[in-house]
Design goal:
Layout lengths: L18 H36 L17 H16 L6 H19 L5 H15 L3 H14 L2 H21 L2
Length: about 170
Amino acid sequence: MPPCRCSLCEGAERATHTIAVHMRNEIKIRFVKMQKERQQEQQQEQQQQQQQAQQPTQPPAPEKPPVPPEHQPLVQGFEHTLKACLANNNPSYTKKLEDVSKRLDILTDKLRYHEVEVPVLQNLQGLCQYLSARDYQSALYYHQQLVSTSNPDQTAQYLNGLKVLINIAKALNC
């Protein structure tokens, strides 16, 4: 039998062997490669598990209490106007309305936790009524009253959003 010239036997002493010997050697090489791949996969999995174990897990956010019933008409009125403006699908106002939505969430949280003073609440109710009635000038008047009479530290987070909402609702006639 002539010497083997296969790729497995290159560089080794070229000896004659049978096909069975050659196949057995090839199977051994594949088996060793598979074992190395499995070991690498297991090491990667262990590293991932260690990294996950080291990362602090964040507890789920506590559920917020519902908005008190006396404030629900206020929240619903602003949300209704916001949804009406969003329904127009006007791309020039999309980002502004997203910001308004975030600011309304801040107002909603303040209402939820009773952090809004009574005079501010009264002006917000007037603003909401006129906004719902599409009387934008009167809504802007109430907004101006809020700006001039309320504590900016307590209202600045949401008042700008309300003014933007009024102006967009006026522009889109929502």
